[in-house]
Write a structure and sequence with these properties.
Layout: H1 9-36, H2 48-63, H3 82-92, H4 98-101, H5 108-118, H6 121-132, E1 137-141, E2 158-162, E3 165-176, E4 183-191, E5 203-209, E6 215-220, E7 233-244, E8 248-249, H7 255-291, E9 293-294, E10 297-298, H8 305-333, H9 339-363, H10 375-385, H11 392-405
Parallel strand pairs: 1-4
Antiparallel strand pairs: 2-3, 3-7, 4-5, 5-8, 6-7, 9-10
Helix pairs in contact: 1-2, 1-3, 3-7, 5-6, 5-7, 7-8, 7-9, 7-10, 8-9, 9-10, 9-11
The structure holds flavin-adenine dinucleotide.
The site of flavin-adenine dinucleotide (FAD) has 21 residues, from strand 1, strand 3 and helix 11.
């Protein structure tokens, strides 16, 4: 099998534009955006300046034709391949604000993918259209506090049919993006089948509008003591929440079918951005190492710092190639069959980025873990990724099972 992991001409042109836009427009506004958070008194409320920054970036990106790249292999988007998108997402990973500027941010891309691929025309008109326009945002609610959610067959939030509605009861937490008041629609994994049904046919996905009566945001979950406002990872209680039965996606018992479709692209998009985050960390590391002196020499020339820089570059290159291979497999054999490749990069990318960010922090001395660089937030984001969209151990299980299948008739 030939494997072309290079960028196409059209992809390269888009990448140059995306990179220039991030350098010229996004990076200079990052610090100001973050300094605005909480100025209204509520950290989950947008100040006028935050809205202005985001909306200006979005309209400029859109006018420049840099919008909705993520919808790969679809007539509605750019029609990019996953490999082509990987190069763009990597650029977006360099800044916390960039993905949203191009309407390519998590969890919206995964959620839009679900509605586009599995939703009815009514779902598309009501929610996909404003999501594609960047007018609203969304959240994906699967994880629950009381069950080990890395095994999604444990999900217990119940949805019971009552006439034209489903009645939802239970709790979800770590609902990323649900703190953002612009997140108007939540895709919720619910249990519709009883325990007699096969394990992978007991669950469904349903669209729930923000502020439906009975939904209560209990608290933001803290990541190392930080609320990640205004995005937020919310703990939400559902008490007799009535949702129109038409909001069910694809049908009862088909939740796992959808999550396979959703999580493949969503996961690899995270990994592509991780590589961009590592690139930015290495850039910051090198700039610091060449502009600051100790013991009469630039930091770069002290101790083992050459080795540290070289190892970082080598690790990034290895991860990028693995990510591109997974993207290529998605393009050629499909998301489902490419799962073991996606799992490989899902383990490698955040781990690699964490190493590089950690070395960049070290090269900055105390400044490296302070508010004066973006490194702390990048580290939080990457550490989080070792859980979000499946913890490392579960992805290793997928890889090992695939490997062992070659040697046994039954998987172990
Ligand atoms: C910042 C952040 C954002 C998140 N955003 C979202 C979101 O938007 N929506 C959402 O639904 N969820 C989200 N999550 C939740 C995340 O997906 C879950 O934390 C993850 O799926 C693990 O579930 P759990 O926390 O219940 O861990 P458990 O299922 O309790 O697992 C705990 C640990 O057990 C071990 N383990 C589990 N399975 C295996 C195995 N097969 N082999 C070996 N060891 C194993 C692993 O070490 C694992 O980390 C987010 C999490 C974080 C931290």
């Amino acid at each position: 099998m030939t494997m072309d992991l290079g960028n196409s001409k059209r992809g390269q042109e888009l990448r140059d534009k995306v990179r220039a836009f991030i350098d010229d427009r996004v990076l200079p506004l990052e610090e100001e955006y973050h300094s605005e958070i909480g100025k209204n008194g509520d950290r989950f409320e947008f100040t006028a300046r935050m809205t202005e920054i985001l909306e200006t970036l979005k309209s400029e990106a859109r006018e420049a034709g840099l919008w909705n790249f993520w919808l790969t292999d679809s007539e509605r988007g750019y029609g990019l391949s996953t490999v082509e998108y990987a190069y763009l997402a990597e650029e977006m990973g360099r800044s916390h604000l960039a993905a949203e500027a191009f309407n390519c941010s998590a969890p919206d891309t995964g959620n839009m993918e679900v509605i586009e691929r599995y939703g009815t025309q009514a779902h598309k008109d009501k929610w996909l259209a404003p999501l594609l326009e960047g007018k609203i945002r969304s959240a994906y609610l699967m994880t629950e506090p009381d069950v080990a959610s890395s095994d999604a067959t444990n999900i217990s939030l119940s949805a019971v049919r009552d006439g034209d509605t489903y009645v939802l009861n239970g709790e979800k937490y770590w609902a990323s993006g649900a703190g953002d008041p612009r997140a108007k629609i939540f895709i919720v994994m619910v249990k519709t089948g009883d325990d007699d049904a096969p394990r992978h046919q007991r669950h469904s996905m349903i669209l729930v509008e923000r502020d439906t009566p009975g939904m209560e945001i209990l608290r933001p979950m803290m990541v190392f003591g930080h609320d990640d406002a205004p995005h937020g990872h919310m703990h939400i209680r559902f008490t007799d929440v009535r949702v129109p039965a038409d909001n069910l996606i694809l049908g009862e018992g088909r939740g796992f079918e959808i999550s396979q479709g959703r999580l493949g692209p969503g996961r690899i998009h995270h990994c592509m951005r991780s590589i961009g985050a590592a690139e930015r960390a290495l850039e910051l590391l090198c700039k610091r190492a060449t502009t600051r002196e100790a013991f009469g020499r630039p930091l770069a020339k002290l101790g083992a710092n050459y080795d540290i820089i070289a190892e970082a570059r080598i690790e990034i290159e290895m991860a990028r190639l693995l990510c591109l291979k997974a993207a290529h497999m998605m393009d050629t054999i499909g998301t489902q069959a490419a799962q073991p490749y996606i799992s490989q990069i899902k383990v490698v990318a955040p781990r690699m980025a964490l190493n590089v960010i950690d070395e960049a922090m070290q090269m900055h001395g105390g400044t490296g873990i302070s508010q004066d660089t973006p490194l702390w937030a990048m580290w939080h984001g990457q550490r989080t990724l070792r859980f979000a969209d499946g913890p490392d151990a579960v992805h290793r299980m997928v890889v090992a099972r695939t490997e062992l299948k070659k040697y046994r008739s039954n998987s172990v």
